[in-house]
Amino acid sequence: MQDIRTQTKTNLVFNAEKVSVYYGSNLAVKDVYLEIPRNKIIAFIGPSGCGKSTILRCFNRMNDLIPSARVEGRITFNGQDIYDKRVDPVELRRRVGQVFQKPNPFPKSIYDNIAFGARINGYQGDMDELIERSLRGAALWDEVKDKLQESGLSLSGGQQQRLCIARAIAIEPEVILMDEPCSALDPISTLKVEELMQDLKEQFSIIIVTHNMQQASRVSDRTAFFNAQATEKGKLGYLVEYDDTQVIFSNPREEYTRDYVSGRFG
Fold this sequence. Notes:
Blueprint: E1 12-23, E2 26-37, E3 41-45, H1 52-58, E4 69-77, E5 80-81, H2 89-95, E6 96-99, H3 110-120, H4 127-137, H5 141-144, H6 157-170, E7 175-179, H7 187-200, E8 205-209, H8 213-219, E9 222-231, E10 234-244, H9 245-250, H10 255-261
Helix pairs in contact: 3-4, 3-6, 4-6, 6-7
């Protein structure tokens, strides 16, 4: 088994080359090329059905859990091909954490929500210290430090999402994938998560899928715009343009990008 933790680190954490995803015989996303720099926030934007979440799931091989899914092309993580048969997808998912659209705390205490992954991975350090460090990292410690034994489900929606972020960073990943992490949150909670992302990128690389173009323009360093074309079998997603966020929103090269960020479609 190849160890994805020991590869030489460069300024790129991921490099995707000609990545296509099939569901059965249906081609869902075609020929995506992406370089993901380290310690930056990358936003995936585009209309529904264009493949944003499908490509996001390629980076931690969550598509493996869909029986009909097949990924072609090459994605390297710290220079290692993550689809090499010798790579353990469970270890990959420890290095590449994910926060989902809807907050999904375990039906356990706040403390045990965070300790769960660390225990599974054989954490040998001071668990109390890890819990506090993870909650502080998710900007949640001051709000929950006196109720760590209460259920994570007792928290507000925004707090639950930050608890899920704390749970993700507790296992010390290098990358955090966020799939519409604020879509179920109120504006105040959304702002807290956005501020948190800016703090987290000092330690982690972050890829976020969002339908909120204002959010992408506020939080991300680079933005990838995806679109889709109609086919006989549904929609075929493809990457239109990928550049610094300021370029995408102020001076994109492609007309489709300009039309989307100006609100003409989507």
